Amino acid sequence: MGKTGQIVKYLSFQEIVERNRRIVLETGGFVEGAGKLSNPNSLEYLVNIVQEKINDKELYPSLVEKAAVYVFNIITRHIFIDGNKRTGMICAFWFLRLNGCIVSESISENEIVKIALDIANRTIDLPEIIIWLQERLE
């Protein structure tokens, strides 16, 4: 369940692919690779794991935890040919907004780039990403 008991709206395989396609076309990079997967099994895994339950208990119960799982997996599993860091960050923020969370408008581009690079370099782990995201909600 999402905020105030609402059903959580998850990102689909195709929606994530489309976000990657758009971000690469809009911001540059390897344009021929826009929306192209380098690791389709990892995207399928992500779409499933973020919703996973064990003994009827959600593996990632909060919206922020789920958003962190999206960004961490997209970036570290190199799901796309290009644009993984941008796609991961956008999907995390999009998921939160889709489920009624208000993400601070004051987050700087430099701050987003830094966290994405930290995730890619594995100098930050999932619990730290959860805290970072939580601190940026209003």
What does the main sheet amount to? Answer: 2 strands, antiparallel
Structural class: mainly alpha
- Report the end-to-end length measured between terminal Cα atoms: 20 Å
Poorly predicted runs are none
Number of contiguous helices: 6
Q: Characterize the quaternary organization of these chains.
A: single chain
- The rounded Rg comes to 14 Å
Q: Please give the domain count.
A: 1
Helical amount: 40-55%
CATH C-level? Mainly Alpha
Would you count the extended β strands for me? 2
Question: What is the fold named in CATH at topology level?
Answer: Four Helix Bundle (Hemerythrin (Met), subunit A)
H/E order of the elements?
HHEEHHHH
Measured by DSSP, the beta-strand proportion falls in under 5%
CATH superfamily: Fic/DOC protein, Fido domain
Largest sheet, spatial ordering of strands: 1-2
What is the typical, i.e. mean, pLDDT? 94
CATH architecture: Up-down Bundle
Large-scale geometry: globular
